[in-house]
Amino acid sequence: MSDIVLESGLAVREGARPRRRHRLVRHSLLLAGRSLTKTRRNPGLLLDALFMPIIFLLLFVYLFGGAVSGSTQEYLQYIFPGVLVMTLLLVGMLSTGLSINTDVKKGVFDRFRSLPIGRSAPLVGNVLGDTIRYVVAAVVLFATGYLLGFRVETDPLSALAAAALATALGFSLGWINVLIGVLIKEEVIVQTVAFLGIFPLAFGTNMAVPTDTLPGWLQAWVKVNPVSDAVDASRGLLTGGPVAEPATMTLLWSAGFLVVFCPLAVYVYRRRS
Amino acid sequence: MSYAFQADGLVKRFGKTTALAGVELAARPGTVLGVLGPNGAGKTTAVRVLATLLRPDAGRAEVGGLDVVRDAAKVRELIGLTGQYASVDEDLTAVENLVLIGRLLDMSKAEAQARAADLLERFELTGDAGRRVSTYSGGMRRRLDLAASMIGRPTVIFLDEPTTGLDPGKREEAWRLIRSMTDGGGTVLLTTQYLEEADALADEITVIDRGTVIATGTPAELKRIAGGQTITARPRDPKRLVEVAAILNAVSGREAESLRRDVISVPVSGDGEHAFAEAVRRLDAAGIGVTELSLRLPSLDEVFFTLTGHRTEEEEAAA
Questions:
Q1: Dihedral angle at the C-alpha atoms of B75, B80, B85, B86, nearest 10 degrees?
Q2: Which of B63, B77, B111 to mutate to probe the A interface, most A CBs <10 Å?
Q3: Which H or E run contains B82?
Q4: H or E segment at B209?
Q5: pLDDT-derived band of residue A2, with 50, 70 and 90 as boundaries?
Q6: Are the beta carbons of B297 and B196 closer than 8 angstroms?
Q7: Bridge partners of B263?
Q8: pTM for the whole thing?
Q9: Maximum Cα–Cα distance across chain A
Q10: Chain B residues near residue A17 by CB distance under 8 angstroms
Q11: Residue B245 in 3-state DSSP?
Q12: A110 touches chain B (CB under 8 A)
């Protein structure tokens, strides 16, 4: 490519080199590295990932434990798998749209968009860089759970799988927030819309109480809510029970969200003025 | 004739606002094109179309003979962009910013680092290369921004108001660096609100207003349209204003007027420097001390007034 001369007589820039392979992957990873550096420089950005797990676990266990299970200890075993799913969703999704929105406004993305890189690379890079938040939140949650007395009843590998499954769902749902981040101009509104969208998903599940105690309309929602499948799978993986079906459903939903919202976000980002 | 970039009949609307209403721009390789206009004239929109960030609603644009819409990916191989808002990452250091861009341009790590070091040296940032950009002054940030657009040795560089917000000393420093950008044969499109800036840097100037081109020419041609330069004087003793006016009338052959209190101005056509030197000699001979004496280009306001019949302030207020 480097020695073609265009009709106008301009040679292609001398620095041009033969295209290397896997460019989208490489560019996305480079930009994920940038996102990680930014997080390292502003550790305050991780505060929610650090404290959300602790607060959620303490609140849910001690608020509802006595009423629902009669004992906080028993309830902890019941609710922990659900809190894992909910926390990872919230921690992952809330930040991604916001960081992209900030980038878009600061003009950094304009430069990225003027570079010969895949249109989706800056978005994918941001989302990948944010996976550190899932790791932090999961570690803190398991540590807090352990201190309070939660015990994994299966094996460490299954526990890891439970965290990975919740992360997969968070990662694919996160693209909804990426879409919101590139679609909406006001930072505050990005956060509000993200919150409003996530709450029914994250809380409207079988996490805290058995589904059959709920009114009919809510039961209907809880049953279709893909997060409930993730909670079921998480329970199976952490405290025993059926795993295959809810895990498959979770992965299918995740794939579905990814297939719909990732291209949509990239499309909107490309068309954005 | 071949152009490094060329735009024909560009139209871009945002809702009810027409940002570009048929703009023509072109620059020959190795030259600087200045795009001059007030806020809201459409300068940024034109740059964004040429830099493949926006699709025009009508018209076409080419960079290096490649269509900016159809061959956008290839155009991006040729261009460098410095946007109006600092387009570097504040949380990264200067080196990290430049190396990241180099690597996104498929340079190896070593190549990217070498290129970054070269540019930091050239843009006089070596001493601060390891500091986070958030600690930089406005001038340093701008220099880094200019360096960032040079990483891939682009053949066409777009600079959108590169000196807006800089104080005069820093502005001249930026001018020096921008001038050096064409050294390697690159072509620069520079937007600005300042006639002096276009005059200092551009080989050709295109003046746009309300999304249309209202004049194109070399700086000298434009100044001729706007009636040349102006001599302005402020006598130390305000009572001698009348004498000063007589001298200015004599050297310029035009009627001097006092637009500000105790200050008198006269437009000079043709060789402004000669008239100015003559004014200095005569003021000195008459023993009149001055606290202000200048020869300056017509301001953008004056060029605009001449070309459009309306003032730029009204434009800004209306925008």
A1: 140
A2: B77
A3: strand B79-82
A4: strand B204-209
A5: very low
A6: yes
A7: B260
A8: 0.79
A9: 82
A10: 106-107
A11: helix
A12: yes
